[in-house]
């Protein structure tokens, strides 16, 4: 069973949109739009517990007031390439966020994550980072990304993963390796195929986003 740090959505809009994403014949345009919508709702949920500070001496059209602001530097870390499907939605919520691209792909034979790109500055530039990864299949890619971010200097509790769908095995693997990282996910499927695909899943998110899968 998922641990306390794993938050599985029960929101009707997310679950109904996820049903559409699973359809094998959904056009790439609609798949992209669905990923963006679910990503926006999940980032919204993952932001619920963020701290606030008072901002005094502001002026509305009617009177002075004290407002609130989030006092954190926010980072968005999409795992290339499928994670880019979340970026626009997350930037709409955090327009001043730093975007920290991580390039990882899964070897088709070993199913191990292989790093090929990192856009992490020399110094840590974020107090909280949202890792944007639509699928957690084996968990290897997410674990590799979390390793890169913690090596960079972040604590586990400064990282949140946002994902549309995961396998039970993969989510458990990530939680065991990084128990203090919160995971916000649309749904969890029970099965993982021998080739490392979530079942019933929704296929390869990168291929479906960019229309590069075999017809």
Automatic annotation (TrEMBL):
The keyword Cell division does not apply. It holds the Pfam family UPRTase. Pathway: Pyrimidine metabolism; UMP biosynthesis via salvage pathway; UMP from uracil: step 1/1. Its cofactor is Mg(2+). Residues 9-212 form the Phosphoribosyltransferase domain. SUPFAM superfamilies: PRTase-like. Keywords: Allosteric enzyme, Glycosyltransferase, GTP-binding, Nucleotide-binding, Transferase. Gene3D superfamilies: 3.40.50.2020. The keyword Transferase applies. One of its GO terms (molecular function) is GTP binding. Its EC number is 2.4.2.9. GO terms for cellular component: cytoplasm. Belongs to the UPRTase family. This is uracil phosphoribosyltransferase. It comes from Tremella mesenterica. The lineage of its organism: Eukaryota, Fungi, Dikarya, Basidiomycota, Agaricomycotina.
